[in-house]
Write a structure and sequence with these properties.
Blueprint: H1 7-25, H2 34-96, H3 103-123, H4 126-132, H5 134-156, H6 166-200
Helix pairs in contact: 1-2, 2-3, 2-4, 2-6, 3-5, 4-5, 5-6
C-alpha cells in the first residue's frame, strides 16, 4: 500500500521538479540564475500551498463525515423509539373503537403516544443528517410534519362526545392508517441509516 508523502517530501519533490525545468531550458545566458531561482521558488511555493490546501480540505471533509456518522448513529435509537410510540398510538386507536373500551382513557393514551413520538422526531438533528445523507434528512422532516399534523388533529378533538358516529369512526381509521404508514417508513429509514453507516465506516 502506498504511503502518503509528507510535507517535507512534497517540498523536495517540488524543488527537484523546479530544477528539472531549469535544466531542461538550459543555463541562463550570462550566468545570472536569480530570475530562474525566483521563478522556481514561486513554482515551489504554489505547489506547497496547493498541497497543504488540499490536505486541509480533506481533513475538514473527513471531520464533517465523521461527525455526520456520529449524528446518524445517535438518530437510530430515536427513530426506533419513535416507531414504538407510533405503533402504541395506532393500537390505542384500535382499542378506542371497541364497545367496552374506556374511550376517553384510550384516546388520551393515544394522544400521549403521538406527542412522545413527535418529541423523539424533533430530537433528531436534521441539519447533521443533511451532510450524512440529504434524502434521509428530507424523509425524516416530511414524517415529522405528518406526525405534527396528526398530533394537532388529535389534540383538537380531545373532548369527543359522540364516539360512535361515522365521522369519528372514519377519522380514527384515517389516523390509524397514517400512523401505520409513518411507522413503516420509519423502519425503512432506520435500516437505510444503518446500511449507510456500515458503508461509510
Amino acid at each position: 500500500m502506498l504511503m502518503k508523502p509528507s510535507g517535507t517530501e512534497i517540498v523536495v519533490i517540488a524543488l527537484l521538479l523546479g530544477f528539472g525545468v531549469l535544466l531542461a531550458h538550459g543555463w541562463p545566458d550570462g550566468g545570472n540564475i536569480w530570475p530562474a531561482l525566483s521563478a522556481i521558488s514561486t513554482f515551489v511555493a504554489s505547489l506547497v500551498a496547493l498541497y497543504f490546501g488540499l490536505r486541509d480540505q480533506r481533513r475538514v471533509s473527513s471531520e464533517i463525515r465523521n461527525r455526520s456518522i456520529l449524528e446518524a448513529s445517535a438518530a437510530i435509537p430515536c427513530v426506533k423509539q419513535c416507531i414504538k410510540r407510533v405503533e402504541d398510538a395506532a393500537r390505542w386507536l384500535r382499542v378506542c373503537g371497541l364497545p367496552d373500551a374506556t374511550q376517553a382513557i384510550c384516546y388520551s393514551a393515544c394522544s400521549a403516544s403521538v406527542s412522545s413520538a413527535l418529541a423523539l422526531m424533533n430530537a433528531i438533528e436534521i441539519r447533521s443528517l443533511v451532510h450524512f445523507d440529504p434524502s434521509v434528512a428530507t424523509r425524516i422532516a416530511t414524517l415529522t410534519g405528518a406526525l405534527l399534523a396528526i398530533n394537532n388533529d388529535i389534540e383538537a378533538n380531545v373532548g369527543i362526545k359522540n364516539w360512535d358516529t361515522p365521522v369519528f369512526e372514519s377519522r380514527f381509521n384515517s389516523w390509524e392508517s397514517d400512523l401505520s404508514a409513518i411507522s413503516a417508513e420509519l423502519r425503512v429509514i432506520s435500516q437505510d441509516i444503518e446500511r449507510l453507516i456500515e458503508r461509510s465506516s
